[in-house]
Design brief:
It is built from nine helices and five strands, in the order E-E-E-H-E-E-H-H-H-H-H-H-H-H. By secondary structure, the protein is α+β, with helices and mostly antiparallel strands.
């Protein structure tokens, strides 16, 4: 229904940003990471997700499409609601979350408030499985296809898998990783540089 809202930041509070668009204030539930980019009185653009329940309609807004993609992936996991997803994305950036999923680092997820070991394990299991069933590396090698999760063995494959979690296609990932010094940079820096190239593109 809404792809994004763009307007003046009228008000911020924990997990909330109100964006004034032409005299209408849109209350967007959001993360600490997005709130850190907002300043009252300045123009902001938030990519949105409308969550509809029987008793309420709530709008969620994010500073980047990557964060929105991660939010939508998380709420697709059984037992993970919007509140838990916001908590996770307040404690982790999209790229660090993607790395946690790919490497099976449940401790990184339990840092988020209200996220226990069982939920963290479920997130890793279900989102790794999504990669295993459909995502492909830039080299054309499937990470799965048999329903069995395969952890990438090198930095290029790990970066590709993490970018795939964020919603990028095989071709986009392949182009973004070209020219990046995989040996000299950490995995997180490789992912960050690739994301920067894709945003500029």
């Amino acid at each position: 229904m809404f792809y994004y809202v763009k307007g003046t930041v009228a008000h911020t509070a924990p997990y909330l940003a109100v964006i004034d668009c032409g005299g209408v204030g849109y209350a967007c539930r959001t993360t600490n990471n997005t709130l850190a980019h907002l300043k009252k009185g300045e123009t902001a653009k938030l990519y949105t997700h409308l969550n509809v329940r029987e008793d309420a309609m709530e709008l969620y807004g994010f500073a980047t499409e990557n964060e929105l993609n991660c939010f939508q992936l998380l709420i697709g996991v059984s037992g993970v609601g919007p509140k838990a997803a916001l908590s996770i994305l307040s404690a982790a950036t999209p790229e660090s979350l993607a790395m946690s999923i790919i490497t099976g680092d449940e401790k990184a997820l339990t840092v988020a408030q209200g996220i226990g070991k069982k939920i963290a394990q479920r997130i890793i299991l279900e989102l790794k499985d999504k990669l295993a069933k459909g995502q492909i590396s830039p080299g054309g090698e499937s990470y799965g296809g048999t329903g069995v999760t395969v952890i990438p063995e090198n930095k290029s494959s790990e970066a590709a898998a993490a970018l795939a979690v964020l919603g990028y296609s095989q071709n986009e990932i392949g182009m973004a990783l070209k020219g990046i010094d995989l040996e000299a940079l950490s995995l997180e820096e490789v992912i960050k540089q690739a994301l920067k190239k894709m945003v500029k593109g």
